[in-house]
Amino acid sequence: MRITASPDDGAVIEIDGHDVASAVEAYRITQTVDEGPEVTLYVQQGRGVEFDGLAEVLVEPADLRHVVIGFLDAVDWRKLDEAVLDRDDLDGRPGELTRGLLAQLREWAASA
Fold it and tell me: Its domain of life (predicted)?
């Protein structure tokens, strides 16, 4: 499996030399100290992906809730609190902290 991604060009996702990026809405790569990497592909409904090789491959329907939950689970609330309070766009209007929180999370998600 080969994955390359850039903000300007999008992702290239190849399995056994076949580009499957058009069928993939999101992917997750995880690895623990004791195990090798695991790649989960979240595919569009109705689009299949074929694989023939030696690997543990999980293909799941695209459900971005898992991606969002994983992102939020990884957020350190202390760093988020500090980053929001240090923002220059807080303006004193009602809801400024909520707007700052959402803007900060959006910025972090865009750079993840």
Answer: Bacteria
